[in-house]
Amino acid sequence: MPIGNLDVPIIGKNVVIAVLVQTHILFAAFIIGAVLIAATSEYLGMVTKQANYERFARNLARFVVLLFASGAALAITFVLALVTLFPVFFSILQNIFFWVFLVEAFMFLGQIIIVYAWYNVWDKLAYRKSLHVVFGFIAGFFGLMAMTMIDAVASFMLTPAEVTSQSELVARSFLNQTMVPLNMHRFVGNFSYAGFLIAGWGAWRYLRTTRESEREYYDWMGHFGLIWGFGFLIMQPVIGYGYLKGIRESAPESFNTIMLGDKAWVFNLLVLWIAVLSIASTAYFVHKLRFTVKPMETMRKLAVGGLGFTALFTILNVIPADADLISQIGLTFAGGDSTSIPLGSMYPWKYIGLIGLMLVGFFVIALYLRATATGFHWGRASRWSQYALMACSVFVVFTMVTMGYTRETARRVDNNPGYLINDCVTLDQKIVSEGCPTEPLMEAAE
Prior knowledge:
Elements: H1 13-48, H2 51-85, H3 87-96, H4 98-120, H5 129-158, H6 169-174, H7 179-208, H8 212-233, H9 236-250, H10 252-259, H11 264-288, H12 297-318, E1 324-326, E2 331-332, H13 346-374, H14 383-409, E3 419-421, E4 425-426, H15 439-445
Antiparallel strand pairs: 1-2, 3-4
């Protein structure tokens, strides 16, 4: 059998790789975000002497240790599947990014060692807390560096840099046109993703427990997780705009595919998930302001106004540009793409919606943090507020999966042809000779 033609029966090799990658990212993103959140919580516990921070940090570190093996197994399985099913494609990446892959492997190894050491010496370094906190942040740093290496490869696949000589291959391929915005997008996204999941877990435990002390702790956990989740979510519109701008300038056909073409519905779906996260989070903040130690009715009324504006701006974001919603399944109305919807245009309404959502988000969370400084009566949250947190934990997973699919489908260009490396290597692993970034390597090999 010729190399590169191995396939998987029934589902196909593309589905196998997609499932492995998406599952691995869900594990890896949580681990990176959770380690840094736990280290920060431990530091806050050391400074404020509040027991909740220390308890939360230790429990989260324990969960990360248990989760790490599964995430590592998925990563190894994905690499083996990639080598087996796409050998030509992987060999090209290996030639271009050998040093990047090598650094990523050592960063991954360093993260494993430090994370396990960090958790195992928790009691032994109880009287050297500053040193132990440093262990946690070092583990987070190694995770971020490993992520940065992978982001260089992922961004190159969509926007490969034009390389004219062997000497500039590594540098220009690593710092391609979308590497920095993608890395920033994922860095912020890891905190938001982990925060929402923590909030959802806290809500679940709050509803399940009957002990008053435990209800107070899990009420606090939901609050603490949502601050991370929503606080970093509202940064994404600006970072996401920068990332899309880089794609539009470097790979305009890919930009048109996900924003204006047959895959535009995927981006609309992504905005819908973000709308749910924003409204549910703001509603929780409004509810929680009822239980401040010091009554703050004026701030709560301002937060209610913020909730109204959040709903308004999310509506602007989810209105489609035309009546052709999902053409692939025939979901159209009123003439399809020939019927434009004025409020669904990117300029100015989508820009107004995204910018407005971000500004209102900053306003609401600033009010909430101001109230947090005075304290809350814990353990009094309503059931619906906890359901809102659990909804956030579900929809943030949808958001992660949709984001990943949106980025990867951008190279398809309606599959005519679809690319593994944009304008370089097609889905069937055929190398495009003209303008392909791998030409210097091929010339050197000859």
